[in-house]
Design goal:
By secondary structure, this protein is an alpha+beta fold. The protein is built from five helices and 17 strands. The termini are far apart. The chain binds fe (ii) ion. Fe (ii) ion binds next to loops.
Length: about 260
C-alpha cells in the first residue's frame, strides 16, 4: 500500500486550523503544545470538547483519555474506524499527543474517505444517494446506536465523503426508499481501504496529530511494536451528520440540512 505522511501545519496560530484539517484529512501540528494542559487548551480553542464513555481518563485531565499498550495481557487490536460514531453528534475531530513512543512500530494510518466516495462508479453512487448506516457501539456496556448518512457532507471543506466505521460497528445499511442493503457494507468498507491513498505517521515523542473523522478512518498498526506506546487523545464534538447543504459550525453547531 502506498502511503504518504501527514500534512505538516506550521502556522496553526494564523490559519483556520479545522478547515486545514478538513482539507488534508489529518495534519501534524508543528511546534506542538508540549504538555497535556497545553494540548487540552489548544483543542478547547478549536471547539467544544467531549469524552467517550468507557474510555480511561488521564489523571488530572478528565477530557483526555489514555491510549496505551502498557500492562496489557494481549496485543491491542485496531481496525480502520471513525471515532465514537454511534452517537448523535460524533466527534468531528480527534487529536493525539505522543507521551511515550516505542523503539519501533505503532504507526497510525489514515484512509481518505473523500477518495473512497470518488472511487465508486456512477450507478452505485446513484443507488446510495440518501442511504444511511446504523452505527452501533461495541465493547462498551451501554447499548448505543445511531443512523447516519453514508455520504456525509463536511461543512469545513464543502466536500462529501463516505462515512463509515469498522465493520463490527456498521450494523445495517438502508437505502433512501427503506430497502435493506446491509450486504453492501463490506464491499464499501473494503473499497475505502483499497481504493484510496493512505497517510501513515510514525510517532516521535511529543508529536501531535489532529484529524477529521468525517473524511478519514484510522487504525493503529500493532503488528510489530517494540516498547511502550502511550498517547493521550482529545475529541472535539461535531455536528449531527448530514448528507448535504449548509451547516452552522459555531460551537460544532447542529446541522441545518438543505439537500
Ligand atoms: Fe480511534
Amino acid at each position: 500500500m502506498k502511503t504518504t505522511k501527514p500534512y505538516k501545519l506550521y502556522h496553526w496560530d494564523r490559519v483556520d486550523v479545522l478547515k486545514e484539517v478538513a482539507q488534508y484529512g489529518v495534519v501534524q501540528i508543528m511546534s506542538p503544545p508540549k504538555t497535556p494542559d497545553a494540548f487540552l487548551n489548544f483543542l478547547a480553542s478549536l471547539g467544544s470538547l467531549m469524552f467517550t464513555e468507557g474510555e480511561i481518563p488521564v489523571i488530572g485531565h478528565t477530557l483526555l483519555n489514555v491510549v496505551t499498550n502498557a500492562n496489557r495481557k494481549t496485543k491491542p487490536k485496531s481496525t480502520f474506524h471513525s471515532d465514537t460514531s454511534y452517537i448523535s453528534r460524533p466527534p468531528s475531530n480527534s487529536a493525539l499527543i505522543a507521551i511515550e513512543v516505542p523503539k519501533a512500530g505503532g504507526a497510525t494510518l489514515f484512509s481518505d474517505q473523500y477518495a473512497a466516495l470518488d472511487s465508486l462508479d456512477d450507478d452505485l453512487r446513484t443507488l446510495l444517494q440518501g442511504a444511511e448506516v446504523l452505527h452501533t457501539a461495541t465493547g462498551v456496556q451501554k447499548v448505543q446506536s445511531e443512523w447516519h448518512p453514508l455520504v456525509r457532507y463536511n461543512p469545513q471543506s464543502g466536500r462529501k465523503a463516505l462515512f463509515l466505521t469498522s465493520i463490527a460497528r456498521c450494523k445495517r445499511l438502508r437505502l433512501a426508499d427503506g430497502t435493506d442493503r446491509t450486504d453492501l457494507l463490506q464491499g464499501l468498507y473494503d473499497k475505502s481501504l483499497t481504493n484510496t491513498p493512505h497517510i501513515k505517521h510514525d510517532w516521535s515523542l511529543g508529536d501531535v496529530l489532529l484529524w477529521d473523522n468525517r473524511c478519514t478512518m484510522h487504525a493503529a498498526d500493532h503488528s510489530d511494536v517494540h516498547g511502550t506506546r502511550t498517547l493521550f487523545r482529545g475529541l472535539i464534538r461535531g455536528e449531527e451528520p448530514i448528507c448535504g447543504g449548509a451547516v452552522d459550525t459555531r460551537d460544532g453547531g447542529v446541522a441545518t440540512p438543505h439537500i
